[in-house]
Amino acid sequence: MTQQHPLRPGLRRGLAAAGPTRPEAPRRALARRGVGVGTVFTVAALALAACSGSPDTSGTGGGDDFEPLTSIKLQLQWLPQAQFAGYYVAQEKGFFKEEGFDDVEIIPSGGDIVPQDALVDGDVDFAIAWVPKVLGTLEATGVELTDIAQVFQKSGTLQVSWKGDGITSVADFEGKRIGSWGFGNEWEIFAAMAAEKLDSTTVSITTQDFSMNALLDHDVDAAQAMTYNEWAQLLETKNPDTGELYQPEDFNVVSYEDTDGAMLQDAIWADTARLDDPAYADAAVRFLKAITKGWIYARDNPADAAAKVYDIASNAEAAFPVGPVHQEWQMNEVNKLIWDGSPFGLVDKAAWDKTVKGALSAVNQDGLPLITAEPDASAYSNTYIQKALDELKAEGVTVDGAYTPIDVVLTEGGQ
After folding, report:
1. How many CB atoms lie within 10 A of CB 402?
2. Considering the chain, what percentage of its residues have pLDDT values greater than 70?
3. What gap in Å lies between CA 109 and CA 29, rounded to an integer?
4. Domain co-membership, 130 together with 276
5. Are residues 279 and 383 in the same domain?
6. Are residues 238 and 297 in the same domain?
7. How far is CA 177 from its chain centroid?
8. What are the Cα distances from residue 153, in Å, to 131, 157, 355?
9. What are phi and psi of 394, to 5 degrees?
10. Quick one: 251 and 307 in the same domain?
11. 223 and 329 share a domain?
């Protein structure tokens, strides 16, 4: 699983199972509407023009001098796993140090931290979160956050049901028990239904835990799964009728990427107001350079990147206990979501608009809208990632390319 939801038994060292799910709402509502769109982009552009992307305290291009940030914190949206390989690789391979950072703290969440809340509260400098979840936060609280790099270019969400149960498309969702982790993960369900003019109030949303037990136990008609995680969990499970692992042909799979409900997922978020600060804007570019190199390494060395994450997870204070083969599957599938031949991390306007349109058109199982107004223009910017990519290209780094998947043979439990 990838997002915030109640903790499942099996998490190591003191992470107890949580109670019922709660809405993903910020801990406090902070209004920061004072920064206008023109101000954000004008000042940010000037700040970037003055920043070299290196820890040069003298500044460049005649801009104001500033003291570069050398210590930053990154908030993940889940526990250590290959979904976040690029960030861990950047740390392990020294890419952050190459960009002038002495200390980068990567903070996992076991469901107890909402990434965008941590960013709004000033607990971290950057955060990883799905776009629709942050859109909900922006509207509900009036805060301003900016997507400065879109890591996942595609949706990795599936809805999985048993073969023969008759759920072969979104059109079959009405009146069914549809599993979801909640916390905004259900938005694609409703957006896909809205696109087909289906009645989402007929759906019974059933909260899943981290496993696929809800489907295996027939507690839901169709369970939510990520291509890189829960789908593999199913295929790592023995079919009690055959004694062999379940196979893809045992299930029907609806991929949201193939629907009009697909939404942008893992993105890197920055504090919009802080981007006016040349030091923070400079740090954003250097941070993006480092993690771009991390994800390039994970693309070109998927097995090694997966092994690095498995080692980190095995020694983490809290981690979900998945095996090395599962991490390799996850690395393989995550790379497919990132590398589509285009440069790393750029926000595709069409995909962004599709995400916003889906959120605006959809209503949940209670008939309530997901969002009611388009986000401010400052909700995303390619300025920082583009500068990072330009600097990397000038240094001889190839920042685009497609991914060639490797063969991963799943084993029981992913071990």
Report:
1. 12
2. 84
3. 21
4. yes
5. yes
6. no
7. 25
8. 11, 12, 12
9. -65, -25
10. no
11. no
Burial call 141-161: b when 16+ CB within 10 Å, e when fewer: bebbbbbbbbbbbbbbbbbbb
SS3 label, residue 153: coil
| SS3 state at 18 | coil
Is residue 11 one of the residues assigned to a domain? no
Residue whose pair of structure tokens reads 């390319």 in the numeric block: 401
CATH code: domain of residue 202: 3.40.190.10
User: Is 134 a member of any domain?
Assistant: yes
Quote the crossing angle between the two packed helices 383-394 and 278-300, to the nearest 10°: 60
Instruction: Give the whole-angstrom CA distance, residue 82 versus residue 335.
Output: 10
Asked if residue 55 and residue 42 are part of one domain, the reply reads: yes
Same domain? For 50 and 182 the reply is no
Residue span of the structural domain in which 216 resides: 157-258
The confidence band for 64, taking pLDDT boundaries of 50, 70 and 90, is low
**Residue indicated by tokens 């861990």:** 88
- The span from the CA of 297 to the CA of 292, in Å, is 9
Helix then strand then coil, in percent of the chain rounded to 5, is 40, 15, 45
What's the whole-number mean pLDDT along residues 334-355? Answer: 97
pLDDT at 293 over 90: yes
d(Cα 234, Cα 303) in Å, to the nearest integer?
21
Sign of CA dihedral 246, 152, 304, 284: negative
For residues 306 and 350, give the distance between their C-alpha atoms in angstroms, rounded to a whole number: 31
Please name which of 10, 8, 26, 27 lies closest in space to residue 18, comparing C-alpha atoms.
Answer: 8
Same structural domain, 409 and 395: yes
Task: Residue 140: name the closest of 46, 30, 253 by CA.
Answer: 30
Contact 186, 263 (CB under 8 A): no
Last residue of a domain, one of 235, 258, 281: 258
- For 179-198, what is the HEC assignment? EECCCCCCHHHHHHHHHCCC
CA 251 to the chain's CA centroid: 26
pLDDT tens digits for range 97-125: 999 999 999 999 987 899 999 999 999 99
What's the first-to-final CA gap in the chain, in angstroms? Answer: 17
Q: What is the bridge-based pairing of β-strands 266-271 and 145-150?
A: antiparallel
65 is a domain residue: yes
* Domains: count for the chain: 2
Structure tokens at 216: 């295996």
DSSP 8-state code for residue 122: T
The domain boundary residue, chosen from 205, 223, 258: 258
Residue 18 lies in a domain: no
Bridge partners of 238, per DSSP, are: 245
